[in-house]
Amino acid sequence: MKNSKSKSLLLGFTAALAATAGFALKTPGTAEQTVAQPQRTVALAIPAAKPAVVQPTPEPKQESKPEPAKFKVINHEIKSGENLAKIFAKLDLDKKTLHRIIHTNDTGKEFANIAAGKILQVKTAQNGDLVHLVYEKNAIDTLIATRQGDAFTVEKQSKNIEHKTASAQAVIHSSLFLDGKVAGLTDRVIMEMADIFAWDIDFALDLRDGDQFTVLYEKQLIDGKEIDSGEILAAEFVNQGKTYTAVRYKDKKGNVSYYSPDGKSMKKAFLRTPVDFARISSRFNLKRKHPVLNRIRAHKGVDYAARTGSPVKSTSNGKIIFRGRKGGYGRVVIVQHGKSYSTLYAHLSKFRKGQRIGSRVKQGQIIGYVGQSGLATGPHLHYEFRINGVHKNPLTVALPKSAPIDKRLLADFKRQTTPLLSQLDTIRTTLVASSN
Ligand SMILES: [Zn+2]
Fold it and tell me: How far is 84 from 90, CA to CA, in rounded Å?
């Protein structure tokens, strides 16, 4: 991947990862990359997902009375579209047995949600009666139904999760994903890191060879083996020479968020209104009659009537991902904020000078001016708000919290985060020392 010019491999990994960490960087000189980048860019390609490893199904509990010999054990791999009823019919098992198991208790009901690709272990007696039904739901929980005469006991066996603090550090040479993997991080921790810093670093375009990260996280182990979970406790990312630090804080209600060491949220808020001194002339309405087209057409944004030339401001920190003409929208700017949010500003009379696709904008920064380009009856700003590509009403959407730590919580914040940050510092110092 190191020297690939434009190999943007997005091979069968999760869409979520593709959305944050999976883009290939554009090399200088390609059409999309209009900002001059003196440094070598690196491809953010990710490999295909490995097939899930099927864990050996645990032995069901031994019954107290000695079992007569001659049991039949079938390890049935659940196919897509199969449910327990279908599997029971296929294996010639009694339908009533299934009914009994599912209605024994709440755990029994969980048998109704079996997932394709997993193994259902079926143990039957010589007379064809089901004796044991074992389903490993996930790395932690296994559902077990055991015959007791005509009835069944249904229970869930949960493995112990061991928590351990771990750390990793890496210098980016090929991609956040690959270098993260080499550093021993699970997919999930890599994803989390991309999420935490998404408001400050565009992992699709900003990553450079030589960038580095240090991360302190909590490993979860089962039987001594790491499972793909665990939370980041603190992390530092050096992107193009600029250092970003985030630390986890859990408030007394159990809400977890990431903050800068001085208590500012890593997520940035949105302004409610992109134009000052404007009046709302049309609201978000999925059944509106379009004033120009004169037919029902969803109005997936809010219109602000304002004088031509009134400044239009980006409602949050982000990056311009579109700037140009787009059909009925006329002159339009689209800004991407973090991983999942984007805002659109349409019918502009002109764009702000000095900005281009790829430019970073701050909350409140002017990006253009009100006009009536495209399909518009008068000068106004048409403003849209999208989460993961889905239009939301900008006036009512729940916006990400970005308030700094409440003054009353500051002492608790310091108490919780100081040890994490000093641990992070120690790890980073070690990294610098060992690389010198
Ligand atoms: Zn509109």
Answer: 10
Residue 157: both structure tokens together: 């066996």
Q: Please check the confidence at residue 48 and state whether its pLDDT lies above 70.
A: no
Fold of 279-392: Glucose Permease (Domain IIA) (2.70.70)
Q: What percent of the chain has pLDDT over 70?
A: 81
Tell how far the Cα of 87 is from the centroid of ligand 1, in angstroms.
53
- Residue ranges per domain, the chain? 72-138, 279-392
**Cβ–Cβ under 8 Å, residues 48 and 13:** yes
Measured distance CA(121)–CA(118) in Å, rounded: 10
For residue 359, how far is its CA from the centre of ligand 1 (angstroms)? 25
From CA 395, how far away is CA 267, in angstroms rounded?
Answer: 19
101 in helix, strand or coil? helix
Q: What average pLDDT does the chain have? A: 81
Q: Which fold has domain 72-138?
A: Nuclear Transport Factor 2; Chain: A, (3.10.450)
What is the Å distance from ligand 1's center to 322 Cα? Answer: 18
